[in-house]
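hey can u check if this looks right to u? its 240 residues, i copy pasted from the old doc so theres a chance i mangled smth
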Amino acid sequence: MSFSAYNPYDRYRQRSAIRTTKFIALFFFFLAIFGGGYWVGGMRYQQNMYILQEEKRILSEGSEQAQSDMIELRAEAQTSNVRLEQLRATYEELISQGVMRDIITLVRKQIDQGVDAERLKSIILSARPPQNCSDPENKRFVVSTPVYKGPRSAASINGVISVAGSGTSSKNNNGSKEAWFDPEQPIDVTFKAKGVKLQKKKGLLPLRHSMIVKDKEYRFTITEGAKSFVKVTFDHCDYP
């Protein structure tokens, strides 16, 4: 009688060993997958952090540049405002003067009436400073008023021009009108010369006027004088 060498316990051990081997292999397989995923995730994280840091740096540089540009623009705007105020002050200073204001008004009126601007420009450029001017002289005349009953008064300028004027009567403390004129009110002044159209000037003192007679230009400044009188200061220069 013989016995078989087969041992069922060996088969169980083999199966157990195979299962253990498979489990260990599967464990290392998942471990490898997890480790690979962790490594890939770490690389992506580092890459994203680098990108974010670069974007932050670019935004920071852009912000600093924008702030620098803003400061520069503000400085330029302030400089422009200062220049504008200087130009405005210069302009107002020029047009506030009586002669300049009258010239600007006259030029604007001529252009509005259809006079060519280039023609006006050439006329202005052709003008030259006065030459061979006489020394200033003074004359005076009585300004007539509605109450004044005296003789007509006029200033004779070198026997060529006659200057006369009228004004508003002054009032005394009782409100009654006096014979002399009120220097705080506008006056009317006339300039007469033979062969020249009568010229008039109206306004508050002092008044300025110029008049061309033959080859001379007469320049007048009319200011307040003694009671009832105005003073006429004049000279004459070659024209043109």
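The mean pLDDT is 83.
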